[in-house]
Amino acid sequence: MNDHVSHMLNTDSIEQKWSDGEREIVRATYRVMVEHGYSNLSISKIAGELGKTKAAVYYHYDSKEELLVSFLDFVVDWFKNDIAEEISESPETALNNVVESLIPLELDDETFHGQVVLLELRSQTRRSEEFRERFTEINDLLVGIVRDIIERGVEAGAFRDVEAPRVAEHIVATANGARIDRVTTDRPAAPAAVRVSLSSYIDSELRQHD
Questions:
Q1: Is the CB of residue 149 less than 8 Å from the CB of residue 91?
Q2: What element of type H or E holds 45?
Q3: Are 191 and 178 in contact (CB under 8 A)?
Q4: Nearest to residue 73, comparing CAs of 8, 147, 2, 144?
Q5: Which of 81, 122, 189, 199 has its CB surrounded by the most CB atoms within 10 Å?
Q6: What is the end-to-end Cα distance of the chain in Å, rounded?
C-alpha cells in the first residue's frame, strides 16, 4: 500500500490485464511527470521518452486525459492487488502496518516522487470527473481496509466495540493530510508527531482499558 509508484508500474502481479504497449506508455508517463511535472506533461514528451512517434501513443489513447485515467486505473488495480499483503496479520498488527505504510517516518526519493505525481493528479480532480472517480475509489478502498480490520478486531475481542466506519474515516483522513503536508512543506518532524498522535487516538478509541 505504499507509494512506490515506479515499483508498482513494474509489478508482474496485474500485468495480464494490460497490453505491453499500454504498460510501456504508462511507465513512460510516470517518468515524464517525475521529471517535468503535470503542467508540462504532453504526448510529445511521452513519445520522446518512449523513443517513438506520437502516433504510437495515440494508437492506444485518444488524449492525454484518457492516458492519465488509464494511469490511475493501473494505480487502483495495483492497490487492490496489494491489499492482501497488508491485512493478513492479526488485527492489531494489520492496523499498525497500514498506519506505518501510510505515514512512513522516512521517504526515499522514489517514494517521494511517487507521492508528488499522485498529488499533482489529485489536484486536477476539480476539473476531471474521471480523476475524481479514481481517487474516490482509492479513498473508499483505504477506508474499507481500515474498517474491515477494526471490525475483525472487535469480533476477536482485540478492540472495543466501536463505530468502525467513523474511526476508519478519521484514520484515513489524518493519514491523507499528513501525506499532502509531507510533499508540499519542509517539516521533517511532522510525520513522527502525526504518527504519535494517531497512535494515541487509536489506543483511546480501540484498546480495551481496565
A1: yes
A2: helix 43-50
A3: yes
A4: 8
A5: 122
A6: 34
Q: Report angle CA 158, 80, 103 to the nearest 5 degrees.
A: 60
Taking the C-alpha atoms of residue 40 and residue 206, their distance in angstroms, rounded to an integer, is: 46
Instruction: Write out the three cell numbers for 19.
Output: 497490453
What's 64-206's CATH class? Answer: mainly alpha
- The amino acid occupying position 164 is A
Q: Give the chain's mean pLDDT.
A: 88
Q: What is the residue extent of each domain of the chain?
A: 14-61, 64-206
Report the C-alpha gap between 138 and 124 in whole angstroms: 15
Residue-wise pLDDT for 1-17, tens only, equals 444 455 555 555 555 57
Spatial contact of 70 and 61, defined as CB atoms under 8 Å apart = yes
- Residue in the structure block whose three cell numbers are 517516518: 105
> Helix 164-184 vs helix 109-122: angle between axes, to the nearest 10 degrees?
110
DSSP 55-95: HHHHTT-SSHHHHHHHHHHHHHHHHHHHHHHHHSS-HHHHH
**Helices (H), ranges, 90-187:** 91-102, 109-122, 129-156, 164-184
Residue 86 to residue 173: CA distance in whole angstroms: 19
Instruction: Tell me the per-residue pLDDT of 134-173, one tens digit each, with 9 for 90 and over.
Output: 999 999 999 999 999 999 999 999 999 999 999 999 999 9
